[in-house]
Amino acid sequence: MYTGSGDLPGLSAQAPVFIITGEQGQCKTTFLHLVLSLTVGANVRVMGILAPGHVRDGRRSGFALINLATGEHEELCSIDPDPRCEVHGRYYFRPEGLAFGRRALTPPDPRKTDLAVIDEVGRFELQGAIWADQIDRLVALPHPPMIWTVRRRLLDTVIRNWEIKNPVIIDVRAASVMATASDVMDAIWAWREAQTRSGLLVSQHPGGCIAFDPPVLAGATAGAPAETPTILRRRYNPEG
Description:
This protein has about 240 residues and is an alpha/beta fold. It has helices at about 30-40, 95-105, 125, 130-140, 155-160, 175-195, and strands at about 15-20, 45-50, 55, 60-65, 75-80, 85-90, 90-95, 115-120, 145-150, 165-170, 210, 235. About 25% of the residues lie in helices and about 25% in strands. The protein has 6 helices and 12 strands. The chain starts with 16 loop residues before the first strand and ends with a strand.
């Protein structure tokens, strides 16, 4: 667990926070999943949670959690009453699910993490519940680029509450998955390059390291066209 920033000279504590926004049912989590599916191929070291929902009889009935660092799954909450559970709104939050999510959102060592993800930040967090403490710690420390999902009606309140200085707003009604993934990768590479300038070792991938090369020409990427997003032109060097 990373607990301090004194050993990170020169690193900015204000890496961008990408906020995917839309109303309930507008596929924010699906959009996020598609963005992440593009960054995974670029060897991004990701931590955080994805929260796919369950639907029963046409209505949201609960949520699961995926730990993005490990791929592990856990049930988070359900509309089914359970005396063991913590109740928020109409949902019963399983203690196992809450503990699982809080572990997944432990502030990372920023030297070993490229992207932090929280799906989602909502009214329960604004009330100081669920992931609120973890978010407080994440934004208080030097952190890598982050992606949050937030309902549109809560967007301004979330930005004010956590004093996000440089939010990048992505509205699912009009945004492009490919363009968003490209912007996220640009932010990740700026983060890695800042680490390099600070003299920090960031090439911690087992069996290899990050190659801080300029973007590969589009024509050299399996015949990719000139408009190929930046994320598909970056290189990972498994030989170091």
